[in-house]
Structure formats: C-alpha cells, structure tokens
From TrEMBL:
The chain crosses the membrane at residues 26-43. Keywords: Membrane, Transmembrane, Transmembrane helix. Pfam families: DUF5670. This is Hydrophobic protein.
C-alpha cells in the first residue's frame, strides 16, 4: 500500500511540475512577443524607451 501511495505521489508531483514548466514557457513566449512589439513600435523621439522602468 505504501509503495503505491509513493508512486502516485511522485506522479502527481511530476505532473504538477510539468504543467508549471509548460505554463512558464508560455509566459516567457508572451513576454518575448510583447518586448519585440514594443521594441519595433517604440517612439522615434525622446529617449527611445517604450517602457517606464
């Protein structure tokens, strides 16, 4: 019974980590696209930075 519970716990942890890593990849891709759009569409005058920080 205990080995079965350990295997199920391990599968649950690995599934959760895999889902979190996939979500982080999607977030990274979205941030990259937003950065590229801001870099291409930055204003011509001023400091040239489109972000405030």
């Amino acid at each position: 019974m205990v080995p079965l519970l350990l295997v199920l716990l391990l599968a649950l942890i690995l599934f959760g980590a895999g889902f979190a890593l996939k979500a982080l990849w999607w977030i990274a891709v979205i941030v990259l696209v937003v950065w590229l759009v801001g870099f291409i569409a930055r204003p011509k005058g001023g400091s040239g930075r489109w972000y405030r920080w």
